[in-house]
């Protein structure tokens, strides 16, 4: 088994990287350790309009379950900050169908796919890589010019390449459950000690069912399961509309903070494996797909040149950081700042934002994929005077 490029991990990011490598002339193998693509699911399934577009697909009824235009953000004292984007900002999707659609696109571009295939060893050089795999329990060796690691938050490829792990991992849990949504066009977000260090959410699938979850840093005093139980039973607004039980449950890790390096001889790391995830929301499809396209292009070119050295592959590092590095860095600072606020400070912050002028600004400039655009507007001198105590500290931390 010999290919120009082997991609490990058949999620949206891996499928996109494989497709772009094939479109740029490489022979490509996409491997997936699980028995089927898109399972198990480890995501809320809320994708921004830009994320879907970045994957080169149109939102269609075969995978879109609902559309969302805004959020109701609840402070710890359960006051609501209503944020209306004024138009569709995101889609609630079936990740199983979405993931399989992207893999089919890769196959149509000429990519070979191997499921139940787990990477267990890697022998690297500056020209040819030998990937040891267990394919349906049978040991095999695959030879390739370039390996692309798109194998998630606990990436074996990153570890085997000496590139380490992401800076921080959140522990996430989500159920799909009976829930009476007030407005299916809005997600709900819960801040502060309800989900310390991140936030909780409800994402409406329809008016009777929502995905309800949260994430907290690994090592938190209480487990994510306990925080979710508290949100479901102790938050008055949630408990009054929660119908009990769960139709489905998902556990997963959310990586925050990119790897220090995402390239080594013969290897590129992309997506969750590289920490290319928005620290403000935990979303990784838009950022991962944008980086995957670059990875596929660079890997194909390097294979054609028979030069898989770190120096050659460093083109990927430079290009993706130029495109998204600053946004991820600002997002990490926002994440750390918000996570450090007390409940009282969050109550003050969200309360101070609940004015017509600020809400209009959020509607005009709010972008879930590029939060720095709105932050710059909010930190103008006029707005800072309206929210003096919090936003001067915010400006110092972020800029």
The number of domains is 3
- Strand portion: 25-35%
- CATH topology assignment of the largest domain: FAD/NAD(P)-binding domain
The CATH architecture name of the largest domain reads: 3-Layer(bba) Sandwich
User: CATH H-level name of the largest domain... which superfamily?
Assistant: FAD/NAD(P)-binding domain
Count the DSSP helices. 13
Low-confidence stretches: 395-399
Task: Kindly provide the name of the CATH class of the largest domain.
Answer: Alpha Beta
Give the overall shape: globular
Number of strands: 18
Structural class: alpha/beta
The largest sheet, given as strand count, sense and whether it forms a barrel, is: 8 strands, mixed
> What average pLDDT do the residues reach?
91
Radius of gyration: 21 Å
Helix content: 25-40%
Question: How far do the termini sit from each other?
Answer: 50 Å
Topology, please?
Blueprint: E1 2-8, H1 12-23, E2 28-31, E3 46-48, H2 49-54, E4 64-68, E5 70-74, E6 80-84, E7 90-93, H3 95-108, E8 112-114, E9 117-123, E10 129-135, E11 138-149, H4 156-160, E12 168-178, E13 186-190, E14 200-204, E15 209-217, H5 224-234, H6 236-239, E16 248-256, E17 263-264, E18 267-269, H7 285-305, H8 310-339, H9 343-353, H10 356-365, H11 371-378, H12 381-386, H13 388-398
Parallel strand pairs: 1-2, 1-11, 2-8, 5-13, 11-18
Antiparallel strand pairs: 3-7, 4-7, 5-6, 9-10, 10-11, 12-15, 12-16, 13-14, 14-15, 17-18
Helix pairs in contact: 1-3, 1-7, 7-8, 10-11
């Amino acid at each position: 088994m010999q290919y120009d490029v082997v991609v490990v991990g058949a999620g949206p990011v891996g499928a996109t990287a494989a497709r772009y490598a094939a479109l740029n002339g490489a022979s490509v193998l996409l491997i997936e350790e699980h028995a089927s693509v898109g399972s198990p699911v480890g995501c809320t399934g809320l994708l921004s309009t830009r994320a879907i577009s970045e994957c080169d697909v149109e939102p269609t009824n075969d995978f879109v379950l609902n559309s969302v235009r805004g959020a109701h953000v609840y402070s710890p004292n359960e006051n609501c900050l209503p944020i209306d984007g004024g138009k569709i900002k995101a889609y609630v999707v079936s990740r199983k169908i979405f993931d399989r659609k992207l893999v089919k696109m890769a196959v149509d571009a000429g990519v070979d796919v191997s499921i139940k295939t787990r990477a267990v060893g890697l022998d690297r050089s500056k020209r040819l890589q030998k990937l040891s795999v267990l394919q349906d329990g049978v040991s095999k060796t695959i030879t390739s010019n370039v390996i692309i690691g798109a194998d998630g938050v606990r990436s074996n490829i990153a570890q085997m390449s000496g590139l380490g792990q992401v800076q921080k991992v959140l522990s996430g849990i989500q159920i799909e459950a009976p829930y009476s949504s007030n407005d299916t066009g809005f997600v709900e977000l819960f801040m502060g000690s309800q989900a310390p260090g991140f936030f909780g959410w409800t994402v409406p699938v329809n008016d009777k069912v929502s995905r309800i979850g949260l994430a907290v840093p690994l090592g938190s005093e209480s487990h994510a399961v306990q925080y979710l139980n508290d949100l479901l039973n102790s938050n008055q607004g949630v408990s009054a509309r929660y119908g009990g039980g769960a139709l489905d449950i998902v556990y997963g890790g959310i990586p925050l903070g990119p790897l220090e390096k995402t390239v080594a001889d013969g290897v590129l790391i992309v997506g969750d494996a590289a920490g290319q995830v928005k620290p403000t929301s935990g979303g990784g499809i838009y950022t991962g797909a944008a980086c995957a396209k670059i990875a596929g292009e660079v890997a194909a070119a390097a294979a054609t040149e028979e030069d898989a050295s770190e120096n050659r592959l460093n083109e990927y590092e430079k290009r993706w950081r130029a495109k998204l590095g600053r946004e991820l860095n600002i997002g990490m600072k926002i994440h750390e700042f918000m996570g450090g606020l007390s409940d009282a400070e969050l109550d003050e912050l969200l309360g101070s934002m609940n004015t017509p002028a600020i809400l209009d600004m959020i509607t005009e400039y709010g972008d879930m994929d590029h939060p720095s655009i709105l932050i710059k507007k909010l930190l103008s001198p006029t707005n800072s005077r309206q929210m003096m105590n919090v936003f001067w500290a915010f400006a110092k931390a972020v800029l």
